[in-house]
Amino acid sequence: MTREELATASDLLESAADDTANDDAGERLGELAGQLERLSTADRGPDHGRLARIQSALNDLQSNDGTDVAETIDDADDAINEYRSDLEGV
């Protein structure tokens, strides 16, 4: 089962990683995209805590980059929020 929202967030972060001029941010965005890709197809979905940590990292990266990349990161964050809206718990 694919979790479409997480797959979409992963694709968006890959795009942001390619578009950023900051090598460190690009590497980190690529790592986060990979995590979301794995989570999108894992047997068991991620919990709120795991996704919150990813979103916190995105928030840090978003504040340190240009507008186009920041918008893409924001779109990925929205996709994660959409997935989280259906999760039980917190």
UniProtKB/TrEMBL annotation:
Region feature Disordered, mapped onto this chain: 1-25
One protein family per Pfam: DUF7553
Protein name per UniProt: Uncharacterized protein
Record lineage: Archaea, Methanobacteriati, Methanobacteriota, Stenosarchaea group, Halobacteria
